[in-house]
Records
---
Amino acid sequence: MISAVSVIPSHRPATLIRVTGEDAFTFLQGQFTNELRQPPGSATYGLWLNQKGKVLADSQVLRISENEFLLWSESSSAEIIRQRLEEYIVADDVVLADETATAHTLTLCGAGEALGQLGGGVPAPGRFVRSGDVLVFCGRRLPGASHEMVGPAKALAELCGQLVGRGAREVVPAELEFARISAGIPIVPADVGPGDLPNEGGLEDAAISYTKGCYLGQEVMARLKNLGQVRRRLRVVRGRGTPPAPLSALYQGEKKIGEVRSVGTQAGEFVAWAMVSLVNLAPAAGLSLEPSGPVVMTWDVHG
């Protein structure tokens, strides 16, 4: 279990892309699923979809100034996001600068008070604060006070040392992965990817605006909202012993009902995200890894 104040030391995020140019705002607004009509200092989580409304990537979009933005993602590939954007830059005055190779991130959990004590300030939801060369914004690793710090490796190492000196505990990514899945928080693309709709992964509330106007994939999102339901959904499952491999098929009786996505393990127990069909699903029945096989997973009560 993650302690009250925990930290993942400086590591490389999957994406840090700087977007500038006279048309930067209008271009990104027409590509991103969430509302970017926010003042400088905003940090907005959302998705990059294809024309069919499937999830290619996610990111936080930090608005540095009127027409300067940083796209940051812990797990979605910079190459995917860059290619996705470059396909739609035609006559727009937009410049993409991929800074991923030199980017560093420090992840904090439950450290809101500690951030205030370090003098950098605690960002409100949907905002970021700047402390020297370091940007701090609310993350999505765990419910509650989870923060991401982006900046030079040396500055983040010093901050990590100060936090540990004040009692924070260093955790390894595997420990955080178990806690993340247990808390019912999916990541892109491991849990919701290019074959999935945002609503199938439960991302509609956090990542989709239904009022901002046109963006790539918006028509599909509007249809899904009108329908009010999807035929598949991510669910959290649990078991003990040997964990299933990602993408393992899941069965109820003879019928295949879905597949495993990401998996976390801890002390002989495993927890996993599973994408399952809601058609003819037996909510009270367990799950097997082969047709009519033994039940090795059960539904998590919080998933």
Note: The two ends are 17 Å apart (CA to CA).
---
Amino acid sequence: MREQLLAAEKIAPLEWRDAALYVLDQRVLPHSQVWVCCDSAAAVAEAIRQMLVRGAPAIGICAAYGFVLAARARLAAGGDWQSALQEDYQLLAASRPTAVNLRWALNLMQERLQRVRADEDPLAALESEALGIHQSDREANLVMAQLGAELIRKHQGSAQNLMTHCNAGALATGGFGTALGVLRAAHLEGLVERVYVDETRPWLQGSRLTAWELSEDGIPVTLIADSAAAHLMKERGVSWVIVGADRITANGDVVNKIGTYQLAINAMHHGVRFMVVAPSSTIDMATETGDDVELEERSASELLEVAGQRVAAQVSVYNPVFDVTPADLVDAIVTEKGVIERPDADKMTKLMSRRRLH
């Protein structure tokens, strides 16, 4: 399976080359493929904030490379460059507050900086750490893809209808994807009849990104309006909803793209299993429940306008980006450390005590 997934890889959201970070501008996909060069921490933070790059794992990877760019600039400026670097840390950390991978990656970079020996090149050490974070995410995705496909086969061994929300694919990660990695592996094993993709308002990550990724891979895909999900579950015999996560708290609550919570409620009512696929870097054991997470809200223009043209009435707007799906609505959490079914605080603690499976 690993070799098949590697051979099928076509899409990457970011590249580190020539000592700069290049990100694929996801705002203009699928109609255009535009690469943007980020050569400073400020440019990386702006790319994250403006959603040129999105998805918790990809955001974390970008932040790690942004830290390298910041260190290079601070070293060149001289003086107490390590103290000055804390300003860049805070700039990057503030770019998207909900995605826990962001601070996780930045903390790894900080820790590596503190371990730099006197005979080491600090920039080389930091670049190696960032590259390691990137490669580790790719490897985790490969493991999760196989574990998730095994879970689908365990509950129903034939081709079936599956559903996903937002984009948890190669574009949101270091490669292959979390939820979409599972869908790719399931397709290779003949377990996919069709994947139904929510459009995912208001940024349309489902219709623009996920539908594009799956169609590029030759996976049967059908796009639906977000509001059609419950009707589809009733009429089309969906067996699994498979999503990613931006944060999973210590009790198993899942913070993900707005609309995930109502999808989980619909799934439970219709007897559809609900799978969350995320690397252990997305699990925040320091936060007890989803109620304790700061949920980002974005500009009202995202709801009031389409392609820069106003379409809505003159009204106030509530535009949360994320919601919290309680653990008791989740059938399985799949990570590179293994799978837990019907998550709770005790199972989450045991999961995080395990070694990675690869």
Note: The chain has a mean pLDDT of 94.
---
Amino acid sequence: MDYLYYKAINWDEQEDQVDQATWLKLTNNFWLDTRVPITDDQPSWHALTAQQQAQVGHALAGRALLSAFQSELGAPSLRAGRRTQQEEAVLNLITFMESVHTKAVTTIFRRLTDEETTAAYYAWADGQAPLQAALTDLTKGIEGDDLMRRGLFLIADTVLCAGFDWAVLTQPALAQTNQMLKNILTGNLIFRDYLAYKFRQGIAELPFAKQEALVAQLTKGAQSLIKLAHQQNEALLKDAGAANDLVDFQWRMLLVALGLGEQPAESGPVAHQIDQLANQAQETVVVETIKDVDATEFMSDDDYDF
């Protein structure tokens, strides 16, 4: 770095316009779990069988565990490899939103079920051997190379969550719960595009031999984590085939974002939903510096209508 750590950030002096564009995307996408009317899902929730409720509850708890890891270990580990001061500000936003994603699951449970059942869902997630093995691998991995940390963060945020997402999004009657998950997914996809961009920047600066070695290491780690994700799906679902397909689809999509693969075909309706969210997350944000206070759009009560 060619600046002192304690230098104030001047957002008009930018080394990388993508930092500010992503900041705007994330702040425009800002939401809080308490603004989604989950109580509207109560009739649909009670219409589910006990088995369906358990499947959705376990899936949400599993996703919450991954988001908690990302907020506490994954996202903070990325700061050491920041390329600009603005990037660190974006990483702070990502860390905060991962915490929101974690809390969102508790909000869903609070509106739909009781404390005892909620505790049982979380205990189930905490006791899943494949999930805990994946978290162990991720914890070891983020102690290494910065680009490897970025790759592993993205695998945890997209690939490992895919089976849990499938279990929830295939219950469309839970409309508000689905909306909460789509809010989370949209954030994850913005994180993916931004961090993959930074990954591409970093890997392009490496000699070819080191590029090959890094890609081989990341692919090996991904295949191990994908295997664990498949095992986790089989522990959660009676027929894990479609969920496993979504895991594989998310990995291929991540390879595209990292500049290491070609666009895959969609693998089912849930993959189509995620692909649509990805397209929305990639919409261009025009970066403008406001010079006149009269051009500023002030907040109103309508801004809190979600």
Note: The two ends are 40 Å apart (CA to CA).
